[in-house]
Amino acid sequence: MRFQRQTISVEEAVKILLSDLETPREEQVGIYEAAGRILARDITATCDLPPFDRSPLDGFAVRAEDTAGATVDQPVSLEVLETIAAGDVPAKTLTPGTASRIMTGAMLPQGANAVIMFEQTEQPGEWSRQVRVKRSLIAGENLSKQGEEVPIGSIVAKAGERINAGTLAVLATFGYAQVPVVRKPRVGLLSTGPELLEINEPMKPGKIRNSNAIMLAALIAEAGGIPVPLAGLPDELPLVKRQLEECLQDVDLLVTSGGVSVGDFDVMAYLADEPDVTLLFNRVAMRPGTPTTALIYQNKRICALSGNPGACFLGAHLFLLPLVRSLSGERHSQAKRIQAVLGETYDKPCPYPRFLRGRLTEEAGQLIFWPDWNHKAGNLCTMSMSESFGIIPPGGRGKQAGELIEVLPHTMPSWSREG
User: Fold this and answer.
1) Which reaction does it catalyse (predicted)?
2) Helices (H), 223-292
């Protein structure tokens, strides 16, 4: 199986990886801990909004019929019964020829059917027993009616939405001190290869420090998962299986880096041949990262990414993060591709779609993709500047500067944050 692999497209691989996932589990969290989480259930309005007829401005609650014929030159005089502040319950009912001074958000008194703003009355800054109205109103003018924004029982936030500041305001409005959210998936992190050193270890000949694990941990956390670092895998298959069995008991998903190619010590490639392992795919039409592999073992998914930093970075965005988002309950788990003009010619031939790291700029309303020319799979020092992947279609011609290409953004473009 290592040397006889069936190549599938990125889109097909993602579809396979995301199919037949378990239903995400729900938990309750306090509203102050809910930001960034995914709603597990639809949220419904527990009351009408507004919960009562109220004034949207500072002015006077009136009966519209009492203002008929009022003009600047011939104002209508009304008796002021009381002042109603926000939070007050009106004590007086309006009768013909009366009005109540009312503040923004305050409950409308019985009998009132319109509100006139202070600026359309004489001497609005002074409290008086009389108010002189300088404009006629119609019934319903300047009112916020009970339930006109949201009737009780209406869905105000949907399952699968990521909770943001606006969602929190809605939840608070309807009294949701505890919020039903999807439990964050625990994602195990394993790195293969005897060449790897821990971050704090001194360099040794033939060794490299494990940069993939910390990079993957950050991406998993950003996508809504809980990264669980695990001890590195050995290079002997029986020991690998034993360690994987132990690791999978404590996580919902496992991601590995390295060991997916056809080398003598690529243990994840050997694992795909085991009879108790279900192979989802082990070759994807993409560069870099063609040998990216996905398995099911012990009823848990294993996303096996390339050990090359650039290929691992790409594979994480294409496969791991949509999987983490789906397990987190997010409805839209895959990033949307857009179109942009290629800023510089890329004519290197490739039999598969090539994903170039790069950045987007905007010029005269047109998005331009600029490749990072240090994009070899093993290169990592420009990954911190990567904002998107430009996709060069397969074939010998490549793409010329000025041609449209598909782009997969993964980070907010830096130009959109500039003042």
Assistant:
1) adenylyl-molybdopterin + molybdate = Mo-molybdopterin + AMP + H(+)
2) 237-248, 267-271
- Binning pLDDT at 50, 70 and 90, where does residue 244 land? confident
- Asked whether the beta carbons of 131 and 121 are under 8 A apart, the reply is yes
Under 8 Å between Cβ of 313 and 386: yes
pLDDT at 403: 95
Write the Ramachandran bin of 196: left for phi over 0, alpha for psi from -120 to 50, otherwise beta.
Answer: beta
Same fold? 10-25+184-327, 59-133: no
Three-class secondary structure assignment of 33-59:
HCCCCEECCCEECCCCECCCCECCCCE
Tokens of 388: 């998107």
User: What would the CATH number be for the domain defined by 338-417?
Assistant: 2.40.340.10
CA–CA distance, 349 with 284 (Å, rounded to integer):
17
CA proximity to 144, closest of 56, 234, 82: 56
Task: Band the pLDDT of 243: cuts 50, 70, 90.
Answer: confident
3-state secondary structure of 200: coil
d(CA 292, CA 284): 6
C-alpha torsion sign, points 263, 269, 273, 275: positive
Share of the chain above pLDDT 70, in %: 91
- The fold of 27-45+158-182 is Molybdopterin biosynthesis moea protein, domain 2 (3.90.105)
In the predicted model, what is the mean pLDDT of residues 133-158? 96
pLDDT value of residue 374: 64
Q: Hey, what CATH class is 10-25+184-327 in? A: alpha beta
160 vs 144: CA distance, rounded Å: 31
- Whole-structure pTM value: 0.83
Ordered by start, the domain boundaries in the chain are 10-25+184-327, 27-45+158-182, 59-133, 338-417
* pLDDT value, residue 208: 65
